[in-house]
Structure formats: C-alpha cells, structure tokens
Design brief:
Elements lengths: L8 E5 L3 H4 L1 H14 L2 E5 L5 H4 L3 E3 L6 H14 L5 H7 L3 H9 L3 H8 L3 H13 L3 E5 L1 H4 L4 H15 L9 E3 L6 H9 L10
Parallel strand pairs: 1-2, 1-4, 2-3, 4-5
Length: 197
C-alpha cells in the first residue's frame, strides 16, 4: 500500500479495487491526492474504480495482450523505452520488439475497441511519468489467455524501467491475505518449503 504512495501513474487492468479491495484503493486515491498520480483504468465495464480514474479505456474482453503490444509498439517506435535498464537487466527484448512492430494504433484499436488516440495518449503518459505501477487482479489471471496476460504486463514494466523501484513494479491485488503465502508454506505438491523440489 505505502509503495503506491510513490507512484506517479497507476495503470489498473482487470481489477476493480474500489469494490474488491477498498483499503488498497484508498492508497491509490492517496497517491492521486498527494502525488498527483494519474489513475488509468482499463476495463470492459465502467466500474467504481473507473469513476475515480483520470483515463478510462473500455477494452474488448480478452484483448489485453493486443492492447499492451499496442502500447509497446508506440514506446519502441518513439524511443521511449528505458534503454539502460533493458541493456543491464532484460533479455529477449528483440522478440518482443518484433511482435510489437505490427501492433500499430489502428490495428490495436480494431482488435481492442479502444480508440487509437486513447492508446497513443496512454502510451505517452506511461512513458513520460515515472515511476508508474501496474495493478491487476483476477480480470487478468482468470482467462483462457491468463498466462499470456500475466507475462505481458511485467514485460511492459521492464521496457519502461519501472521494475525494482518504489512506486513501480507490478501490484497483483489478491482477494485473500495469503494466496502466495499458502504456496510458500508448501501447499504445492511438487515442492518442499523454500521451493526445493
């Protein structure tokens, strides 16, 4: 929660924290209030979180990966990526660039239903506002494309150089206080505590 206080932009996708996680959402509102953080909400439905957003993008369900590639297209095209962070900390970026190349704002708009101007506006905002955090919940994970969704969002943060920074990173909002902890405590059948096989 307090880490969100350092965010200058909060990119919420597949989440409606105003309803599902109101205490966490209060930290986002605090970042808006104290830090002038911009809240961007991407959701097929105009939610209570969207009502508090600076930018609401109505996305066609199941097109999250295409949308993020549309953002990456613009980031690479304009040289907005964090080149030194990528050089020092990231590998395999050429494959991502190759895929992003085809996702023009027009094509991304056609697939996602989000107007091209909004895609451009949000890409510019994310690229010029540091640090930015990405927030998601079950709207991203519980999908036939859930694995791809949860891979593309950290890629976006790596490209922008927002990983490992206060107010940056990926904030996955869970419905239970110990979802990850239960796996750490060895509820996974194939591992011992400390992730030993």
């Amino acid at each position: 929660g307090d880490l969100l206080g350092h965010s200058k932009a909060i990119f919420m996708i597949g989440a409606n924290s105003a309803v599902s996680c109101p205490i966490g959402f209060k930290h986002m509102l605090k970042a808006k209030d104290r830090n002038n953080a911009k809240l961007i909400v991407i959701d097929p439905v105009y939610t209570k979180s969207a009502a508090k957003s600076d930018h609401y993008l109505r996305i066609r369900t199941g097109t999250d990966v295409a949308f993020i590639y549309g953002l990456l297209h613009l980031i690479f095209k304009n040289g907005w990526e964090d080149k030194s962070f990528i050089a020092e900390r990231v590998y395999g970026i050429e494959e991502v660039k190759k895929e992003a190349k085809q996702w023009t704002p027009e094509k991304t708009s056609d697939v996602t239903g989000i107007p091209a101007e909004q895609i451009i506006q949000v890409a510019r905002l994310l690229a010029t506002t540091k640090p930015a955090t990405v927030v998601w919940a079950l709207g991203i994970t519980q999908h036939s494309t859930g694995t791809s969704n949860t891979r593309i969002l950290p890629i976006l943060q790596l490209v922008l150089g927002n990983m490992g920074k206060e107010g940056g990173g990926c904030n996955i909002i869970r419905g239970h206080d110990n979802v990850q902890g239960s796996t750490d405590m060895c509820c996974l059948a194939d591992s011992l505590p400390g992730y030993y096989g």
